[in-house]
Amino acid sequence: MRYISTRGQAPALSFEEVVLTGMASDGGLYVPEQIPQLSREELESMAGCSYAEIAFRVMKPFVNGEIDDETFRGIVRDAYATFSHDAVVPLNQLDANHFLLELFHGPTLAFKDVALQLLGRILDHFLAKRGERAVIMGATSGDTGSAAIEGCRHCDNLDIFILHPHNRVSEVQRRQMTSVLADNVFNIAIEGNFDDAQAMVKASFADQGFLNGTRLVAVNSINWARIMAQIVYYVAAGVALGAPHRQVSFCVPSANFGNVFAGYMAYRMGLPVKQFIIATNANDILHRTIAANDFSKQELKATLAPSMDIVVSSNFERLLFEAYERDGHAVAALLERFQQEPTALAEAPLTQLRALFASHSVDDATILEVIREAHHRTKELLDPHTATGYRAAERVRADTETPMITLATAHPAKFAEAVVKAGFPGVPLPPHMDDLLEREERYTVLPAELAKVQAFVAENRR
Ligand SMILES: N[C@@H](CCOP(=O)(O)O)C(=O)O
Fold this sequence. Notes:
This protein is α/β, with parallel strands linked by helices.
């Protein structure tokens, strides 16, 4: 298996290279050259298997023998042993045919742990094997940062620099990052928004001269391994609800699009999926694109669902690459236009996407209404991101016969502001975090200026 760039110009890479590279040199994102297939028999045989076993089987073709099976099994087992629920990502039935896929039982209480507990271990494995050190630069709107720090803090070979938008993440999200005082962990609060932070990370990949030859690695979902790990829970949930013998649908709170793209990959691998619903907050570019073919930037809004406060959605590029029949030139041209002016997708790819994807956008007032309503109906307290999914699933699902699986992307304890505004007294943090609000914090505030951020990274890396 080789990996190719969505913009068609960068060299194809192996799994090890792709994990250690992050972004392609032509500015694109890596995807597998061929999409491995899961046969009906393979899907059937996963029923009743542990999550770690399903994970091993689903990811094995992507890893391509570059980590031997026994070692890879160990990495997978250790990654998911850190989750507090035996099922790792349990399904919670809300009504006759609507389920929540609870992705928040990892160490930092968000779906990012599923991939980052694994990625940290894979990076450690490859870097130790090569005897190399690397620098991680990541951008976060709130959840990736802590999950990346948690996944990589014990890696001797890594220094981690996480950029978050200053005063635009929840207090719990910030403290989960800034209270980690390890020598190899650096938090930078950027005076700007998530798009500014992500743009600086991507620019650093494009020109790595400031690191004088030290390798730069991505922990954001531009790194293929993030997507690979997330494919697993779509397959596990589908199989638990009867796939391959019946179809399932998914509703995914979306912003940087890595999560829903992983679901799309599960579908392309053979999971029978009827519909994907893309749920957004008021930053609704994904919804506008699918519903109205309006692929244009609007000003980023701060919402009650801060992890989804994103306008430039990285992984949408990977979906566009598929919708444009893997024509890297067409994708590059479209994305160049998008950076300059409001644009639109061509007719054929749009029609193709609309056959599988629906979308819905939910504003802050509705998020609060949904948190109350869902609690009244189901006794579940949803976090504000999951609330966008809950509402979207109700509003735009194709039918009520196909099981609808809404991805519960984070634990409500991370978002006290929304929970309290919705009229609840708050949610206690789990025991391993119960002193989080008293822990010492360490972070550096920097302007959204690439040169200053790169100088900080260059000075502080070990
Ligand atoms: N929503 C994310 C933003 C970064 O997305 P990623 O999936 O590319 O890491 C966050 O919470 O940080």
